[in-house]
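Subject: Sanity check before I submit

Could someone independently write out the structure tokens for this chain? I want to compare against mine line by line before I put it in a report. The sequence has 340 residues.
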Amino acid sequence: MHLRREPDGTTKVVWFIMSEQPSIDRGWDTADVDACLRGLGFRTKHVHVSTEAQACSAIPSDSRGVLAWPVCYTLAGDVDGRPLPAVLEDVGVAFIGAGARSYELNGRIRLKEALAGSAIRSPRYQIVHEATIESIPFEMPCVMKCEYSSESRGVRVVHSKDEAREAWHLLTSRFGQRVIVEEWKRSREFTVAYIPGVERPIIGALEFILLGGRVVVDEIAKCDNRLIQFAVPDRETIKHLSDTVCQLATDLSIDGHFRADFLQDAGGELYVIDINLMPQMHFSEDCLSYFPMALRATLGMDTESVVCGLLDSARRKWQLTYPEPAARKVACAAKLGEER
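---
Independent answer below. Compare away.
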């Protein structure tokens, strides 16, 4: 793949590639990241596109020194459509995040199928149709989920077959996707942020403390801060989560940053329940996304440190050179994984 660079070999421009449909990008407030990048010596540009053709034509053939930052999975809102990273790979532009091949894990069913050959476990599940609700094989409560969703949208806890039927109609009418039912175990729930590092990855972890009778982080809990509290796990649990998420990245060949959610049962066994290959990047105090929140709570990383960690991952993946002061600060961020 030919990568376009400045004549001196330096990558100086970061382009945020986002959909023309605002609802797709609502998990992003690029203002803080944009200001951070400009402070690091980059020029920035926001490119709004809705088709592959627009994406390709938006990046001129003579553009140099561009590093793209994809802000949405796909361009037109088709959740299982061709991922934006695949388009960027086709036009030969370096980008932040995992490669297109990893995005095959975007769907929950695909993720579970991919884990079939791994030692890492995921809760048992079954694809549900209206006619099969009565034969759900798991004890109640259990969890019903859309094949694709983010921000815990499309996640419903059900306590009876009647609730399962109601949830199935709601999810299929609202999202138009396949629905699965997942076995629920009384457990602890965690989210883990992962950035590939030099010697070791940069990893942050948080435990969800659920209130108000919630049993999982569903859409209701995620939209109401009164229903969730957060805690940094103890050292032993962080090590267990870190080892597991590293194994997950290896087994699934994920070559970029991501966020993974886990359940831990009473015996200490971890179960991966979701992977987000394009985690949200809100950095404001009143709307802090889980990815930077976990890194801040565990390692004390601020906005600049998180951005520099992601820049370092892209630098090593694409063999890039950055301007100052980015080059110096990115080198410092890269050492955070070694200090873990």
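---
OP: Matches mine. For the report I'm noting this point. The first strand starts at residue 13 and ends at 19.
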